[in-house]
């Protein structure tokens, strides 16, 4: 039994792609003889310092409240203390998310003499570090990690540019539970839509993600002014929120929608069952400006939802234009609009992309296979330690 300590800055009930991916991965890893525990930040006082969820122990450390230099220092100190305290119950330290967290994970692994794995969740962070004087020191520590996971081609390229040894880089994409995230029959879909107040003529464009600038929801709202005029029966559904996000633009965008008197837009908030919305929508819109490898895009495609996504790293790993989805020029609302209209006008195109999207995700991103690759990596690192 391999004992893996997962370190992540935010975890449920604080939502996000990295958090959802880790939750799903942890469940799968336990079926492959990997015992998972999760160490995260205690953002609010009501969060327990220790609890069990789906067979996984979640530990929380640090001083509750928004991030400050002092609270960040307390958090890092808490991580180190935890690793030292439980050193005999840890075989591998695996950080998820930020590069800086990966560096902390490496320091923890050195203190207890265990291998470490660093998973970088978002592209662009390594390039940004290279432009700062202190960033080079951070990257020098990162290079000493046992393994660095590149979830996309773009992140792999950034790591190589930063002179991370190729032998230290492993490509493992995010995965998706293709049983949970799957299409439903036309009869079930019709019933689900009726329960949401939709008739057969109404088409739903769905956005899912955190309401922060890099997710590009503002672009989709720009596009909606044109799309809604040409398709008066269409609706825009927004799944997610900016809660607990320091750069949230949720209130700003809600105010804009009100001031511009935009109609047929539903704010759905956060949910633990996003598949219920993927399964009844007609198009998935993903206008993100920067990604690692989007969980929501994987989930939507697994549900057979035809997608329109920005032409950025990560998205281009998953989507092939006009084959299993549509790609639009990054940060170009006009191009986004054109692609959305293209799909709204043709049910045949939507059906073609739907079938191809589902098939591709099942073949290449099944969570069972992704977790198997991680479990094998852990064993290799532990055995060669």
Task: List its traits.
385 residues; alpha/beta; Rossmann fold; eight-stranded mixed beta sheet; six-stranded parallel beta sheet; 15 helices; 14 strands; globular
Task: Describe the protein.
With 385 residues, the chain is an alpha/beta fold. The protein folds into two domains: 2-175 and 366-383, Glycogen Phosphorylase B (Rossmann fold, 3-Layer(aba) Sandwich), CATH 3.40.50; 186-364, Glycogen Phosphorylase B (Rossmann fold), CATH 3.40.50. Helices cover 43% and strands 18% of the residues. The strands form two sheets. It has an eight-stranded mixed beta sheet with strand order 3-4-2-1-5-6-7-8, sandwiched between helices. The two termini are 16 Å apart. The mean pLDDT is 94.
Quick rundown:
This protein is α/β, with parallel strands linked by helices and 385 residues long. Helices cover 43% and strands 18% of the residues.
Number of domains: 2
- Considering the protein shown, what is the CATH homologous superfamily of the largest domain? Glycogen Phosphorylase B
Going across the biggest sheet, name each strand in turn. 3-4-2-1-5-6-7-8
Mean pLDDT: 94
| Assembly annotation | single chain
Sheet-strand content, in percent, reads: 15-25%
What proportion of the residues is helical, as a percent range?
40-55%
| CATH class division of the largest domain | Alpha Beta
Biggest sheet descriptor: 8 strands, mixed
Helix/strand order, N-terminal first: EHEEEHEHEHHEHEHEHEHEHEHEHEHHH
* Gyration radius, rounded: 21 Å
Number of H/I helices: 15
CATH architecture of the largest domain: 3-Layer(aba) Sandwich
Structural class: alpha/beta
Poorly predicted regions: none
* Cα distance spanning the termini: 16 Å
Global geometry: globular
Tell me the total number of β-strands: 14
CATH topology of the largest domain: Rossmann fold
């Amino acid at each position: 039994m391999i004992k893996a300590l997962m370190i992540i800055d935010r975890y449920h009930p604080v939502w996000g792609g990295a958090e959802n991916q880790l939750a799903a991965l942890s469940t799968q890893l336990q079926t492959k003889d990997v015992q998972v525990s999760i160490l995260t930040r205690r953002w609010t006082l009501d969060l327990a310092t220790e609890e069990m969820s789906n067979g996984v122990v979640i530990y929380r450390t640090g001083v509750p409240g928004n991030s400050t230099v002092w609270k960040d220092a307390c958090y890092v100190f808490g991580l180190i203390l935890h690793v030292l305290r439980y050193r005999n119950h840890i075989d591998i330290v695996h950080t998820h998310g930020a590069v800086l967290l990966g560096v902390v994970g490496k320091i923890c692994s050195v203190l207890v003499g265990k291998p470490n794995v660093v998973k970088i969740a978002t592209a662009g962070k390594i390039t940004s570090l290279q432009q700062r004087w202190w960033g080079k020191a951070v990257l020098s520590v990162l290079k000493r990690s046992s393994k660095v996971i590149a979830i996309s081609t773009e992140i792999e390229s950034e790591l190589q540019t930063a002179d991370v040894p190729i032998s230290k880089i492993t490509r493992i994409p995010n995965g998706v539970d293709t049983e949970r995230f799957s299409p439903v029959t036309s009869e079930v879909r019709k019933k689900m839509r009726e329960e949401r107040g939709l008739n057969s003529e109404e088409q739903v464009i769905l956005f899912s993600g955190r309401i922060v600038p890099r997710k590009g929801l503002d672009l989709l709202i720009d596009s909606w002014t044109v799309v809604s005029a040409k398709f008066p029966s269409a609706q825009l559904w927004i799944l997610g929120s900016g809660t607990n996000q320091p750069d949230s633009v949720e209130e700003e965008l809600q105010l804009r929608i009100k001031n511009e008197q935009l109609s047929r837009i539903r704010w759905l908030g956060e949910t633990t069952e996003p598949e219920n919305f993927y399964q009844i929508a007609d198009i998935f819109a993903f206008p993100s400006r920067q990604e690692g490898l989007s969980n929501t895009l994987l989930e939507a495609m697994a549900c057979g939802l035809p997608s329109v996504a920005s032409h950025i790293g990560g998205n281009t790993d998953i989507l092939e234009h006009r084959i299993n989805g549509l790609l639009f020029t990054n940060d170009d609302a006009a191009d986004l609009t054109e692609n959305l209209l293209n799909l709204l006008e043709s049910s045949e195109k939507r059906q073609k992309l739907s079938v191809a999207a589902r098939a591709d995700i099942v073949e290449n991103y099944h969570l069972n296979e992704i977790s198997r690759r991680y479990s094998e990596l852990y064993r290799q690192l532990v055995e060669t330690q």
